[in-house]
Specification:
The chain is 40% helix and 24% strand. It contains 10 helices and 9 strands. A 9-stranded mixed sheet has the order 2-1-3-4-9-8-7-5-6, with helices on both faces. Strand 8 and strand 9 (198-201) form a beta hairpin. Helix 8 (219-229) packs across helix 9.
Amino acid sequence: MEYKLKMAILDMNEGKPNQGMRCIRDIAAMYSSAFDIDEFDVRVTNEVPGMEYDVYISSGGPGNPMEGNGVWDKAWYKLVGDLWEFNQNNKFDKKYMFFICHSFQMACFYFELGTLAARKSTSFGVMPVHKTKYGENDPIFKNLPDPLYAVDSRDYQLIQPDLDVFRMHGAKILALEKIRTHVEYERAIMAVRFSDEFIGTQFHPEADPVGMKIHFEKPEIREKVVENFGQTKYDSMMEHIDDPDKIELTHDTVLPLFIENAMDSIYANNSVLV
């Protein structure tokens, strides 16, 4: 390979300990022969990457997605807007971005795709996620089962999509949360294809079984989960973690395919430009 591509990982965790960044780093490292990889601690240092990167992955994080400190959030939104405009103005040369959980919510807020609302209670655990007709045909989601299973951890969610805005941007809803016949609440949107280059998930596709199991088997973490969500929820989550057809399959599919598809498109477009 004559040159390496550039990948930027945006840590949105506000300095809080988490498993997500380790998982993102591990997946990104699988492609280190193709990418130079840099990491930005956005909410601690108020820094975002520049436009020189080819692929961007923006992580989950805590807090209200509609609030920031007026510095890092403005810089993050500017980056997203600049990348979007770059893609609109270039036929072949493109920038690719993946939004996870908190970043997904912020992206939906930025593009005004619907209503971002606080949940009645935290959604937490390994959950079924149902694909839409667009998800069935999406290059990343089409090879996953319906429902697929993923780690879900959210206090906010996107509901009541503005379909006119979706059509204006060319965005597609790829997945919805589990079907809940016993409650009247609207199902949250769990994945969106913003464009050919931008995609995001409300769930955590980076979560891996080994790290999850080690984390949730810690006595203090186990006690906290049981206290907040009950023993049944904890036992069900641990059972799903061990199932290779659940979060392991999602972990092995979503982010790797995003990176690989971006690489393939970049190389194909570069051959056109040469």
